[in-house]
Amino acid sequence: MNTDTITVKGREFTLLKDSKSGNWRIRKRTEDCWLDKTTGISELGEARKMARIIIERHLNENYRILTGNHTLEEVAQAYLSFPKAVRPYVAEANVSRLRQIVRDTYDLELSDVIAKNITYRLWEDYAAFRHGGKLDLSTPRRENIGITSAMRSACSLFAKKLDRRYEEAGIRLDFANLRTVPSLPILKVRRQPLPENTLPAILAAWRDLRDTDTNLYFTIGLALHAGLRSSEIDAATTAWIEQSGANVKVVVKDRPDEGFYAKGGTKDDSWLAGLVLDDQFAFDLLELKESGYANIINLRPESREWFFGHTVNAWVRQFIPRELDRKGLHRLRGMYADAIKLKFEAQILASRAGIDAARLALNHNTAAVTLQYYLTPQ
Question: What is the pLDDT of residue 65?
């Protein structure tokens, strides 16, 4: 027997035996309850006892009785008012994505939708809409990248770490159902290689910017020769420029007072430090720091979004058309990674061999444990 049922608080839950592990798994997918969790036990009697504990805890803690008639618009406005570690335009983009998803799926505005009536089926219905009316989880599609991106962006409004914020704002809703985004299969498309003359052409045109457009010159240079992301370039200050011997680095640091946080988070003083590979650009950065300017990129606040969203990418696409690579400025960061790999290839290979030897000696399944507990990151 590979299936069984258990009733808890008047609700019936299905138990399934996992064919690989042999353990019993609890599964229930309804509008008001979504549960898919292993008991970790193979014997049915003991698995039923563990399942009852898991289900009761799940119902008591995660699936509270929904109260209030808050609309999704009220939820969105509360979300925008919370202090967050993302830039304001990111939060606004998340709300915009949710607004468009609700419009496409139900032809309604956020103010017309009672939040407690929305379940994880919102994402499934949206994916089905984008697939032409039927959810397709069997066929890999290129457009699934965009669909998944939209859903995950909108799902950010219901992140578990924001529950306390919503409660403080007087909104007590069950957002757990909205945190599960369907896994859409992605068609893996092999990236077309760039023509061999692309990098020399970019470098030649970039050097000409030194005398004509300093903002564009430093923006392209920080991506191409220091590996910074566009958000980091936008926030870059001359205080980030540091010299150590013959090397110049751009050290990205959090500025909580201004709402800027380095992507991926940081621990202690382990900041992202982009080693500047071009000697002339390194000299220009040091000269800019000595000149007394506070910001590396000097733009009016109202023109920044247009500059990074349009001007910079338009310049890059002269050399890397959208059909070859859609990332624009971020593609130059990939070129920086290639240059770093080439410069330090011997050290990387030696380090990898040393880590692998340590892993084998300690009998670890993966190098992650070896690196975390036994070897320093260096």
Answer: 40
Question: How far is 2 from 17, CA to CA, in rounded Å?
Answer: 5
Q: 17 has which bridge partners?
A: 24
- Kindly state the tokens that stand for 37: 């969790």
Alpha-carbon span 124 to 271, nearest angstrom:
39
**pTM, full prediction:** 0.52
pLDDT band at 351 (very low <50, low <70, confident <90, very high): confident
Structure tokens at 170: 């007087």
Residue 227 to residue 220: CA distance in whole angstroms = 10
Helix, strand or coil, per DSSP, at residue 117: helix
- Residue 47 to residue 43: CA distance in whole angstroms: 6
- Largest Cα–Cα separation, the chain: 78
CB under 8 A, 24+ apart: contacts of 34-42: 34/119, 34/120, 34/176, 34/177, 34/180, 39/15, 42/17
C-alpha 175/C-alpha 160 separation (Å) is 8
Question: Distance between CA 249 and CA 268 in Å, rounded?
Answer: 18
Please write the tens of the pLDDT for every residue from 205-257: 999 999 999 999 999 999 999 888 888 888 888 988 988 888 888 888 877 77
Helices 88-106 and 72-81: crossing angle in degrees, nearest 10, is: 170
182 neighbors 123 (Cβ within 8 angstroms): yes
> How much is the average pLDDT of 94-101?
93
Residue 103 to residue 43: CA distance in whole angstroms: 48
Q: How far is CA 372 from CA 69, 71, 361, in A?
A: 47, 45, 15
CB neighbours of 49 closer than 8 A, spacing ≥ 6? none
Alpha-carbon gap, residue 139 to 250, rounded angstroms: 44
pLDDT digits over 122-158, tens only? Answer: 999 999 999 888 888 888 888 888 899 999 999 999 9
pLDDT of residue 373: 63
Per the CB < 8 A criterion, the answer to whether 254 and 226 are in contact is no
Q: Do 296 and 248 touch, CB atoms closer than 8 A?
A: no
pLDDT-derived band at 191, boundaries 50, 70, 90 = low
What was the pLDDT predicted at 104? 92
Give the single-character DSSP code of 252. Answer: E
